[in-house]
Amino acid sequence: QVQLVESGGGLVQAGGSLRLSCAASVSGFSIHVIGWYRQAPGKQRELVARIISGGSTNYADSVKGRFTISRDNATVYLQMNLLKPEDTAVYYCNADLERSTYIYRYWGQGTQVTVSS
Length: 117
Description:
By secondary structure, this protein is mainly β. The chain has strands spanning 3-7, 10-13, 18-25, 30-39, 46-52, 57-59, 67-72, 75-80, 89-99, 102-107, 111-116. A hairpin with a 2-residue loop joins β9 and β10.
């Protein structure tokens, strides 16, 4: 049974900070990639940041220098600083899990981040 449980969303003023957490229960799988996507109203879901097995990270250009992704075992964090109103979205934890050479994609339920101007 795979579960991705997010926490840490909320309402913050522009310039403020939030830290998102995603606790992954992935018994029987290995984590290939884990990270965060977001979806604003009327827009497509987009990658925010991810950690690939081995430790390399990818960030969306719009968050570079402001957001930092980190991982502690099966928990992934997204530290968001200098938040902007355009960061307002539902943030989803995503994990690509590997078992027997197959990759399986899982999503969390999402957590709302609202940045007021």
